[in-house]
Amino acid sequence: MSENKDRLVLKTKDGDVVIQLRPDIAPLAAERLRTLSEQGFYDGVKFHRVIEGFMAQGGDPTGTGSGGSDLPDLKAEFTHEAKFLRGTVGMARTMNPDSANSQFFIMFAPCPSLDGQYTIVGDVVEGMEHIDKVKRGSGSSGVVKEPDVIVSMRPAA
Length: 157
Known about the structure:
Elements: E1 7-12, E2 15-21, H1 27-38, E3 49-51, E4 55-58, E5 88-91, E6 104-107, E7 120-126, H2 128-131, E8 152-155
């Protein structure tokens, strides 16, 4: 397995963020992010939900939190070995565990309540300081008015 094959470069207005995918624990989700990144799916997509001290969520082309790609939803790939820590990348979903599609979130801080409940698809290995600068939302929903966007996201290889 090529390490670069499993790395994505997410460009923000402030700089590059390198995500190391985890196909060892979430092969379906890792392949989905890689495929959509190769297609340019995430280019210009908003960080529509950002909660201070919790996470930044993006990956919905509608910018509303209710959209996804044309690909089918993914089966949950929950693990109890990996934990949601600062920089962990998780797959967003509805209350249905098998509903992850294109949306993902990046943790600002550890959140043990997510462990074993959501799919961990990767980790930020460089550039977390740029995610820290993403514009925050307000209220408990964290919906952002005039949100920052993912400039582009592509495989590193």
